[in-house]
Amino acid sequence: MKQLLILGAGTAGTMMANHLHQKLDKKEWKISIVDERKEHHYQPGYLFLPFDIYTPEQIVKQIKDFIPSDVDLITEQISKIDGKTSVVKLANGKDLAYDLLIIATGSKIAPEETEGMLGNEWQKSVFDFYTFEGALALRNKLRNWEGGNLVIHITEMPIKCPVAPLEFAFLADAFFKDKQMRDKVNITYVTPLSGAFTKPKSTAALEHLLAEKNISIESDFAIAEIDNEAKKIVDYGGKEVSFDLLVTVPTNKGDALMERSGLGDDLNFVPTNKETLQSKDFANIFVIGDATNVPASKAGSVAHFEAEILTENILHFIKGEALSASFDGHANCFIETGEGKALLIDFNYTHEPVDGVFPFAGVGPMQLLKESRMNHWGKLAFRWIYWNMLLKGISIPFVTANMKTAGKNF
Amino acid sequence: MEKLIAGKNIQVNEEGYMTDFSQWDKAIGEELAKENNIDLTPKHWELIQYIQNEFKAESPLTIRKIGKSGVVDIKEFYALFPVGPLKTATKIAGIPKPAGCI
Question: What is this model's ipTM?
């Protein structure tokens, strides 16, 4: 029996287990998946948890419920990947030899990278919402917070779901309006980028929305430290922003396993061919989702599109064929803008997000880069799609792995 | 579009970043630095060399990476290029503005 090993049972790893168990010959291949956790979290739900829109029960399920029964699920910590001998070492001392390895270990926040972030004010007035614990602590804080300077902050790029902090700002505006206390809250959006987003057309649209919602923006801010005493963030150039409540997105890094295994870059992301998704170091290692260093968004939609491409390439690889499936960097993201509306953006490595309609040219019904109620329903429906279709490797009708240009106004 | 820099017609984009690195030379670097109110010291040149090498190796540039370059730390980087250091330094080095990677 040949061994196909998947590391990480999050969004990308679970999708690959489901795709491959349908496609590989069971007499020839044994599929195993390793994750130290027992729970699978719907990470987009972390955005809604602080505002009491979702409850914890809606976003947490069991990993085992999403792994096919003939795939071996191993709940154990991973110590090291030895690419030279094709062996993965587990913390319990067991070695797993593989013929083909898929790394899907994701990315995590690393608040320790910024001076003062884990200081006295951590989870008192300094919060993250990229972890379940952080989002829950922030929810409890927001329930009783009486107002002041709310600062929403991105430490450095790349981050998982780059639109999430903007959505947080929009939802915060709506939350405080709803609580009849918007006049007691100043909202400031602080980013290391030169504007609200990295691509020109969406930056213009999003900055318009920020202005409309009376959210000020402080751009080109490279944080040097959080001053816990004076409650301010300070940048290397000397700029300062005071806060009463800081919601920060800490530095995102790949799993420390990459550092231990000598497989990561300076942020522990794995150097990966951006088209074939093959590791640059070892031919029998493939990488998917947030764990890669490819210049695409770190987002569930990206992992979903990558999974379709990677499944094809793994089948090619097994047959000794050229890796002809090519990922184009496709991302498709709903951006909640508050008050029951959302934007939708659809883009790839070469095409920035523009306006138009999606998924059918001339029809829609989704509007690209414009606020609409339909887009908001799409975002809420997505939670159902995630648990019931996406993780199980069922294609979403009419949404293709490679981006379509029809219906868009370039 | 084209721009006359140090007596040569150079291809630049609308933000003034060079679009063809092969056209870059030290005289162009000097003139771009002047436009950005920077007097180039040997330390500046050492860093520009590092940035260009990373670009040639297709390795994406970030402020973090510069801080770990062994040439300068982040505080020194800001001292060399006080306003938008990465944007200014890449412009002078004749390479595209770092995308910030979404």
Answer: 0.79
CB-CB neighbors (< 8 A) of B83 in chain A? 237
Domain that holds residue B40: 2-93
Q: Do A237 and B75 touch (CB under 8 A)?
A: no
Backbone angles phi, psi at A207, to 5 degrees: -70, -35
Q: What is the dihedral of CA A250, A196, A329, B18, to 10 degrees?
A: -110
Q: Are A168 and A191 in contact (CB under 8 A)?
A: no
Cβ contacts of residue A238 below 8 Å, gap of 6+? none
In whole angstroms, give the CA distance from residue A67 to residue A300. Answer: 17
The answer to whether residue B99 is domain-embedded is no
Residue B34 lies in a domain: yes
Q: Is residue B100 part of a domain?
A: no
Residue A40 is inside which H or E element, if any?
A: strand A39-41
- DSSP E strand boundaries for A67-171: 72-74, 78-82, 87-90, 95-97, 100-103, 107-109, 126-127, 148-154
In A, which residues are within 8 Å of B62 by CB distance? Answer: 156-157
Long-range contacts of A133-139 (CB under 8 A, 24+ apart): A134/A46, A134/A109, A135/A46, A135/A47, A135/A49, A135/A50, A136/A49, A136/A56, A138/A49, A138/A50, A138/A247, A139/A49, A139/A50, A139/A51, A139/A52
Delineate the domains of chain A, giving CATH numbers in brackets: 2-50+59-106+255-318 (3.50.50.60), 110-251 (3.50.50.60), 331-390 (no CATH)
- Dump pLDDT digits (tens) for A47-76: 999 999 999 999 999 999 999 999 999 999
Exactly one of B1, B57, B99, B101 is catalytic; name it.
B101
pLDDT in tens, A310-342: 999 999 999 999 999 999 999 999 999 999 999
Q: From CA A108, how far away is CA A123, in angstroms rounded?
A: 17
The number of domains in chain B is 1
Residue B98 covered by a domain: no
Euclidean distance between CA atoms B66 and A222, whole angstroms: 13
Asked if residue A139 lies in contact with residue A49, where contact means CB atoms within 8 angstroms, the answer is yes
Contact between A309 and A327 under an 8 Å Cβ cutoff? The reply is yes
Beta bridge partners of A357: A367
Closest partner residue to B78 among A192, A199, A236, by Cβ? A236
pTM above 0.90, yes or no: yes
Active site residue B101: yes
